[in-house]
Specification:
binds pyridoxal-5'-phosphate, 11 helices, about 425 residues, alpha/beta, about 25% strand
Length: about 425
């Protein structure tokens, strides 16, 4: 079926997801869990999908049906997950610099909380002395990530309690009689096969810290960052290699640290990324100073990753007329900033105004990072449930925002 059909029906631009790819990635994560559990007899492994990658209920329900758990980091994420049928046991609140009011909301919802600084543990202790918490530790090693902005471990980040601060942490925990039942670490976002050794180094460093300083921890959370290939020359993450690297390390840890009952992992992007494409419309085709510029309606407000992180997304076109010439072009959006570029110097067959532009692997950190910048509404989201020529089953899973939705929030007087 032509992509343009969806734009004609629901408006442009539009996020389009393929449920079969989504379900496949959920199953891969379930299998990852089961392989580790088989190797670590009696130890639980829990996969918590990081809701911030994409919080659409249609995606969360596939995560739920696959038997995976979720991470929440804001009141809305918690509420959406609750609506999707996740019980409090299947949700973990992993947060950073939250207010007392938010802590009260988490406590009253009955979720286990993972706090990430001595100061936050202090605030929590005053509210709920004698309770159980998890604490985010910064294992000190340089994190992994596709951009400096998403490296979340090492001496330069705002996250977690460092080895040097642990005495202070334990003193505050004792002051309020808090039980630290779990530790957490997250090195950063997006590692592929070449960075598996870095991830493993981080895991080892984190486990060493647990062994050396923490008493009777039951849960060890090893974070997310499972990557997907964005560029044509990148290979998918080798999950069986990752499992085989993890098994001996985790086995060894379980033997020398008998209180541990559960490991957690937090895949985010891995689950929805490759199921999603972002569709838009070519609005201008211009040659300036010997450079081709292809203008589209996909601005940085719709997909911010290229302008925020310099991220690469594959871009292709659905053409009305097929015999156009091949050129090198910059493909850009409709926002008045010179950084509003989707793809630089791409070899493409030149499209015409009105053709459809397709941005691939846009299912994670796409819609969830979209904004109303320059006063444009957020796009609709559509899920394809069976992509057959004869009877395509698809459903709008989020309405396009209306100008009236945005107007309503303004106080005019
Ligand atoms: C964002 C985040 C994740 C998921 O990261 P991905 O790179 O999408 O896998 C996992 N854990 C925490 C604490 C996060 O903040």
């Amino acid at each position: 079926m032509k992509r343009k059909f969806f734009l004609d029906t629901y408006g442009s631009p539009l996020y389009l997801y393929d449920n079969s790819i989504l379900c496949d990635r959920c199953q891969q994560m379930k299998q990852f869990q089961e392989e580790l559990e088989r190797a670590l007899l009696g130890i639980k492994v829990r996969m918590h999908y990081s809701t911030k990658a994409n919080n659409n209920p249609a995606i969360l329900k596939s995560v739920r049906d696959a038997g995976l758990n979720v991470d929440c980091m804001s009141p809305l994420e918690l509420q959406i997950n609750k609506e999707c049928g996740f019980t409090k046991e299947r949700m973990l609140y992993v947060c950073n610099n939250i207010s007392q009011d938010e802590m009260i909301m988490v406590y009253e919802s009955g979720l286990l909380i993972c706090l990430d600084s001595v100061s936050q543990v202090h605030t929590w202790g005053q509210l709920y002395p004698g309770s159980s918490i998890m604490v985010r530790v910064n294992p000190g090693v340089l994190g992994v990530g596709h951009s400096q902005k998403v490296i979340t471990s090492g001496s330069k980040t705002k996250f977690g309690v460092s080895e040097k601060q642990l005495n202070k942490l334990f003193a505050v925990a004792e002051q309020y009689n808090l039980r630290i039942i779990g530790t957490h670490q997250h090195l950063g976002s997006l590692f592929l096969n070449d960075k598996i050794p870095n991830y493993i180094t981080g895991v080892k460093a984190g486990l060493e810290i647990v062994k050396k300083y923490f008493k009777n921890v039951e849960i060890v959370d090893l974070g997310g960052g499972f990557g997907v290939p964005y560029k044509p020359n990148e290979q998918p993450l080798d999950l069986s290699l990752l499992v085989s690297e993890l098994i001996p390390i985790l086995k060894d840890f379980v033997q020398s640290y008998p209180s541990v009952k559960e490991f957690k992992f937090e895949p985010g992007r891995y689950i929805p990324c490759e199921s999603g494409t972002l569709l838009g419309t070519v609005t201008a085709v211009e040659k300036r100073n010997r450079t081709w510029w292809i203008g589209t309606d996909i601005g940085m407000n719709v997909l911010v990753r290229p302008s925020m992180y310099g991220s690469y997304h594959e871009i292709s076109f659905e053409y009305v007329n097929i015999n156009s010439k091949e050129v090198t072009a910059n493909i850009c959006g409709n926002v008045c900033e010179s950084g509003d570029i989707l793809g630089k110097r791409r070899r493409v067959r030149l499209p015409e105004v009105g053709d459809t532009v397709i941005v691939h692997n846009a299912g994670a950190y796409g819609y969830s990072m979209a904004s109303n910048y320059t006063g444009r509404s957020k796009p609709a989201e559509v899920m394809i449930y069976a992509d057959g020529e004869a009877a395509p089953a698809y459903k709008v899973i989020r309405q396009r925002e209306k100008i009236s939705d945005m107007m309503r929030q303004i106080e005019w007087n």
